[in-house]
Amino acid sequence: MASRKWTIVLVPHGTGESRSLAVSVTKFRVLASVLAVVVVGTLGFTFATANRAIDLSKLERLERRNTLLTEELTRAELMIANLGDTISAIAERDRLVRLLAGLEPTDPDVQLAGVGGPATWTSDDQVLAEAPEGRAALDLRGDLDNYIRRANLLAGSFQEASDSLAGHTDRMARTPSISPIPRDVGWFTSGFARIRMHPIYNEPRPHPGIDVSAPMGTPILAPAKGRVSDVRTISGYGKTITVDHGHGVQTFFAHCSKITARVGQAVDRGDKVAEVGRTGIATGPHLHYEVLVNGKPVNPRDFIFPDKITD
After folding, report:
1. CA 236, chain centre distance (Å)
2. Which pairing describes strands 249-259 and 286-293: parallel, antiparallel, or unpaired?
3. CB-neighbour burial class of residue 192 (10 A; exposed 0-12, middle 13-18, buried 19+)
């Protein structure tokens, strides 16, 4: 049987003759198949080329990102190394401050406890550790955790030393340490004694303080920080004033001609609290000075330090 043919008529828009083209069905099918293959191939090539361009762009961006990440990790490593040096310097300063505060230095084993990387990694950490940059990031995290722990330890140590030093400083400020009469004005005439011959009654009696002779009206100075706790006139002692320094320590001044501080008044070392006189039973103007610790008289000479210590 003769093959079937298709006739294609080409009609021009303008003037001219129409043309016809006879094509067999078989040839038409072959031509259509070839055309389809060309179209599909062209589309596939175009898609592959576009994908390759996209992949190259992503790869370049990823490489750039990795480069920046490496640079950031390098900077972070340098910063953490500097942080370690700073914390070491602070630890040395902490040792000195604790020494001044009368505290034992922090045990080095306590300072270094837990140093090292994390004991266990999560599944995400395991994935992160597969890349060199990821492992470096995990190491940095471990170092940073250690420095944070050490910083917290030092903060607690500094607070303890600060509290101790403040208490120590306050105690020293409240410890009698100077002569209540300026050294270039007064002179000691009678010392602390369990028993001595009384200069007026001419009989043995205890003398719980020291006597300092000085001109009438000479300023009497507080030997340490404290608060005036009592002002009164006592038989034999005349006009008296007592200063409470805390920590169980008091100072007592007698035979004053004038009291210049009032009860409840806060005083510092060297403040004037009274003036020398001869009130009560006294052979001449002088100060009777006592130091009491927990209510018991002690030798005041033990609480008069050299100028190079008290200044």
Report:
1. 56
2. antiparallel
3. buried
Cα distances (Å, whole numbers) of residue 266 to 202, 261, 295: 39, 9, 20
CA dist 138 and 156 (Å) reads 27
Q: Which residues pair with 246 in a beta bridge?
A: 249
Helices (H) and strands (E) in the chain, counts: 5, 14
Q: What is the pTM of this model?
A: 0.54
Residue 111 and residue 151: Cα distance in Å, rounded? Answer: 10
Residue 303 DSSP one-character state: G
Residue 87 has a CB neighbour count (10 Å cut-off) of: 19
- The residue whose two tokens read 């293959």 is 37
As a whole number of Å, the end-to-end CA separation of the chain is 135
Helix residue ranges per DSSP H, the chain: 25-100, 108-112, 123-128, 132-173, 307-310
- Check if the beta carbon of residue 69 is closer than 8 Å to that of residue 133: yes
Dist. CA 299–CA 292, nearest whole Å: 9
pLDDT per residue as tens digits for the range 91-139: 777 777 777 666 777 766 666 654 554 456 666 666 666 666 667 776 7
Handedness of CA 132, 138, 143, 148 (dihedral sign): positive
Q: Find all residues with CB under 8 Å of 111, minimum gap 6, and list them.
A: 91, 150, 153
Q: Would you say 161 and 103 are in contact if contact means Cβ atoms under 8 Å apart?
A: yes
What lies within 8 Å, CB to CB, of 187 at 6+ separation is 212, 213, 214
Give the separation between CA 31 and CA 54, rounded to whole angstroms: 34
**Which residues does 284 contact at the CB level (< 8 Å), separation at least 6?**
213, 278
Closest CA to 172 of 122, 116, 223: 223
Q: Is the pLDDT at 199 greater than 70, yes or no?
A: no
Closest to 210 measured CA to CA, from 252, 246, 168: 252
